[in-house]
Each structure stands twice: as C-alpha cells, then as structure tokens.
Design a protein that fits this description.
- The strands form two sheets. Strands 5-4-1-6-7-8 form a six-stranded parallel sheet, sandwiched between helices. The protein has a two-stranded antiparallel ribbon with strand order 2-3.
- By secondary structure, the chain is α/β, with parallel strands linked by helices.
- The protein has two domains: 138 residues, HAD superfamily/HAD-like (Rossmann fold), CATH 3.40.50.1000; 64 residues.
- Helix 8 links the parallel strand 6 and strand 7.
- Helix 7 crosses helix 8.
- The relative contact order is 0.20.
- One of its GO terms (biological process) is DNA repair.
C-alpha cells in the first residue's frame, strides 16, 4: 500500500513534549484534584491506553473538558519553547515536495502548533485542532473529506493507542512511531499498518504517491 496523504499527531509525534506534558500534568493535578506522578510513574504509563491512564491517575471523566482546556492554555503560553523532534522539518518538506497532502490533527490549538512549527507550518495543508481526548475520529473524517481520496490512501501517524483507535474508527490507515509517549512494544502489539522506528522511515512510505 502506498499513501497519498499524511495525518500527523503533534505531541510525541512531531514535537518532543514529554517533559512539558509531565510538568503541565502535575500542575493540572494540583489544580483539579487528581494524582501527581513521579518521573518513574509517568514512565509506567507508557504501556497503557488512555482510559487506563485516566483511571490510574484518578481523573474524574466529568473533569476532562476543563483539564483539556487548561492544558491547551498551558501549551499556548509555552509553544515557542517546544522543540520539534530532529528531522521533522526535512521530513515534512520532503512530503510536500513529493506531492503528499499533510494534515495535523491534535487536541492542541492551531495557533500554538503553528508557533511551535515555525516556518515548517507552511508545509501543512490542513490543521484540525482542538480534538477532545477521544474525539479524534471525527477530525480524521473531516480530513478524509478534505483530501477527497480513498480513506485507505490516508495514513494517520501518531504515538498513542487512542490515535490508532481513532484512525480505525475513521477507516483510514494506521501508522505509529516509536519515539513518542507510548512504549513501542505496546504500540506494535496493537497492529498498526505501518510502524516507524526512525523519522527518516516516514518519507519513503509516501514516495510512490507523487502526483
């Protein structure tokens, strides 16, 4: 299977936000009354799905919208300090040159992601932002409509179990990366269509899609 359109998650896929996320999560925990975690405890979450993580941290489901809003605000205020993973600008530029469509689907706000991407944002054709924790599938479906191609020709690339779950709900192809939040072995056990251990493996998966 060759792919003609790439959908990227932001946190943990394009941007190295692990340290930021741990710090912001503990600030949110103090504010909204759920468990603060040590570095070792955060590492233990890497082999869990999102629902397991929420239960482990003692987060009431009814508080999730308020917590998500808080986290988006925190990201917006610190976006310029967020670092992209090495190779992201070249990878996105290469996809653009190959005629591959590019979208970013994230729970973060578009303005914050654009700040973090800097000049690299120009390579992105569509931003679908502000997704709820378990609401990415609807955003993926909007990307399918925008792309105007067979859903199977669209590869959604993320770093968490919920990214895989959402892509399957939207009936698009599933890609996962080994450098993000979730443990690579755990992600591989979920059976994505493509798994990327390195950033430079992404572009070749799309080279044949040049139009």
């Amino acid at each position: 299977m060759t792919y003609e359109f790439a959908i990227f998650d932001f946190d943990g896929t394009l941007a190295d936000t692990a340290e930021w996320f741990m710090a912001a999560s503990n600030v949110a925990a103090a504010r909204f009354g759920f468990r603060q975690l040590s570095l070792e405890e955060f590492k233990g979450l890497r082999a869990m799905g999102s629902r397991e993580i929420i239960a482990h941290m003692g987060v009431p489901m009814w508080k999730l919208p308020r917590i998500a809003t808080f986290m988006r605000q925190e990201m917006s205020s610190q976006a310029r300090a967020i670092q992209l993973f090495p190779g992201v600008p070249d990878m996105l530029a290469g996809l653009k040159s190959a005629g591959v469509g590019i979208a970013v689907v994230s729970s973060n706000g578009e303005a914050a992601i654009r700040k973090a991407l800097g000049d690299t944002a120009a390579a992105v054709d569509l931003f679908e932002c502000g997704a709820t924790l378990f609401g990415k599938a609807q955003h993926f479906k909007r990307v399918v409509k925008f792309a105007g191609i067979e859903p199977q020709r669209i590869l959604a690339i993320g770093d968490e179990a919920r990214d895989i779950e959402a892509a399957r709900k939207a009936r698009i192809s599933v890609g996962a990366v080994g450098w993000g939040y979730a443990d690579p072995t755990f992600l591989k056990s979920l059976g994505p269509d493509r798994f990327f251990d390195r950033m430079d493996e992404i572009l070749p998966a799309f080279r044949a899609a040049k139009r």
